[in-house]
Design a protein that fits this description.
alpha+beta; Cytochrome p450; 2 domains; 3-stranded antiparallel beta sheet; 9% strand; globular; transmembrane helix; oxidoreductase; monooxygenase activity; metal-binding
Length: 537
């Protein structure tokens, strides 16, 4: 009988060699490998690399993403190393671009551009269901093209614009009613970031799916020290409130699955969070699928009964538009739900941050606030309801919004990525799989394109301002096929809010010497804004 040693001589020779090696030598060797690994890549490719920081031992360039504010760190890198800066990001080459002259290919308007992906596919995207659905991180390009087309069509009908204006005005009137309870000269501090977050949540609930929420009511109860006890979500009866809370949890799940590598999901402690967020995703999906099916059935019943549009009881909100504008095929609830989620995400946190940055800048520049309010009153009057037809008559108000987004872009860094095509930018060659980080915040404050770039000067966006700056120098919504498809809706929404609220109130900063409190995750998010609210005479 042949022994195992004779049958597998090479295997046993290797085993004997390994068994004689001290485990400490193995650990030391592995540690040395981790230390030199970042430098191996750096020095191997240094002739083809753009300027950039030397990687740190063990962690490479992870300090840029783990320490401090990522957006500010990349802004500082552009300041130090110039228009093109080379780093690594999540193990891949990442190039920070901070000049509009290099963006023509990355911001191509072609539906066949090789840069229709934002980032490489990750396990987190798959877990979130974003890898093949929606627009934000969809890596399935044919489906992305299909979704973008109908997303834009759903935001375009005049009936939707009218309805969204109506709902925005109604929410403005509700928040004004709550603020009317603030006593004159009380010096009562108002946490405006919390109020605007509640406001945008209620507004988007109506605009996106016709779901009336109670965020502002809850905020008012807290503001007036009324007792508010939140029910367990399983016992909650109000569907709008259920949806609000699920979406709030979803925002945390989004951060978890994007930033926590899959290899850590089963680690002690982290596994509890992974299981919790998985349950939230399942609960949210079931909830959304149910109300999407109900709306589709309601539309089908009216079509079968040949109900006219004048007699229809179906709200012409975003959900209805997604179903009815998609005439080429019948979208499934799964295809619709991710578009609804992204509509909420784009319309709540980003709008809140933009509104707070506008309030902050106008409070520090009352002369611009005075001019904006005079324009609003001359076009709409003090008590008339604003309509969508009024919005084009507010050029200075729009200039205030643009200047605010220039100084404090909600998306300070946007990404482009191609797994298929090498790229030549300036004198540098970038292989496929390179991540390009477009540093919009740095471009927006470049004195080469904007005179006195750190000052708040809305007048720079009046008249034929687009002819005075290079293409891509001002990109608050991005450019090309990956630009924000809801930019026109967002501008409409913010104009309506400013025109309605600023006729009634003005805001004074509690701490006028403090900078605007922003924190960066996937976007800039307002973390704190305290004001005094005063009724306008």
């Amino acid at each position: 009988m042949v022994s195992l040693t004779e049958q597998y001589p090479i295997l046993f020779t290797v085993y004997n060699l390994i068994s004689k090696i001290n485990i400490y030598y193995i650990l030391i060797g592995f540690f040395i490998y981790l230390v030199i690994r970042p430098y191996f890549y750096y020095f191997k490719n240094r002739n083809s690399l753009a300027p950039g920081p030397l990687p740190l031992p063990l962690i490479g360039h992870w300090n840029i993403f783990l320490i401090g504010d990522v957006a500010q760190n990349k802004y500082n890198l552009s300041e130090k190393y110039g228009e093109i800066c080379d780093i690594t990001m999540f193990g891949q080459r990442c190039v920070i671009i901070s000049s509009p002259k290099y963006l023509k290919e990355l911001f191509s308007p072609s539906v066949y551009s090789p840069f229709l992906r934002r980032l490489p596919l990750t396990s987190g995207f798959i877990e979130l269901g974003m890898d093949k659905e929606g627009l934000l991180l969809n890596c399935d390009i044919p489906k992305w093209r299909h979704n973008r087309k109908f997303f834009q069509q759903s935001l375009s009908p005049p009936s939707f614009i009218e309805l969204s204006t109506k709902y925005t005005v109604e929410c403005c009137e509700e928040i004004i009613n709550y603020w009317s309870h603030i006593k004159e000269d009380s010096n009562q501090i108002v946490k405006l970031d919390e109020w605007f977050r509640s406001f945008t949540s209620d507004m988007m609930g109506l605009v996106a799916s016709g779901s009336k929420e109670t965020s502002m009511k809850i905020q008012f109860m807290k503001f007036t020290n009324q007792i508010y006890k939140e029910k367990d979500i399983e016992k909650e009866q109000n569907r709008g409130e259920i949806y609000r809370r699920l979406r709030s949890e979803y925002a945390d799940a989004l951060g978890f699955y994007i930033f926590v590598p899959k290899i850590l999901w089963n680690f002690p402690g982290i596994s509890i969070a992974a299981k919790y967020y998985k349950n939230i995703l399942n609960y949210l999906t079931d909830f959304e699928i149910q109300f999407i099916k109900e709306r589709k059935q309601q539309i089908k019943n009216e079509n079968d009964d040949e109900v006219s549009s004048q007699n229809s009881k179906v709200r012409p909100d975003f959900l209805t538009m997604l179903i009815t504008q998609n005439t080429e095929d019948d979208p499934s609830p799964d295809e619709i739900k991710q578009n609804i989620r992204e509509m909420f995400s784009a319309g709540t946190g980003t709008t809140t941050t933009t509104l707070c940055s506008i309030v902050y800048l106008l409070a520090k520049h009352p002369e611009h606030e005075k001019r904006m309010v005079e324009e609003i009153l001359s076009v709409i009057g003090k008590d008339n309801r604003i309509t969508s037809s009024d919005l084009s008559k507010l050029p200075f108000t729009e200039a205030v919004i643009n200047e605010s987004m220039r100084l404090y872009p909600v998306v300070p860094i946007t990404y482009r990525y191609s797994p298929d095509q090498d790229t030549q930018i300036a004198n540098y060659h970038f292989n496929k799989d390179t991540i390009f980080a477009i540093n919009l915040s740095h471009i927006h404050r470049n004195e080469e394109y904007f005179d006195k770039p750190d000052q708040f000067i809305p007048e720079r966006f009046l008249g034929k301002w687009k002819e005075t700056i290079p293409q891509f120098a001002f990109s608050p919504f991005g450019h090309g096929m990956r630009s924000c498809p809801g930019k026109n809706f967002a501008m409409t929404e913010i104009k309506v809010i400013l025109a309605t609220i600023y006729r009634k109130y003005t805001f004074k900063l509690v701490n006028p010497d403090e900078p605007l409190q922003l924190k960066f995750t996937l976007v800039n998010d307002i973390s704190k804004m305290e004001v005094y609210i005063e009724k306008r005479e």
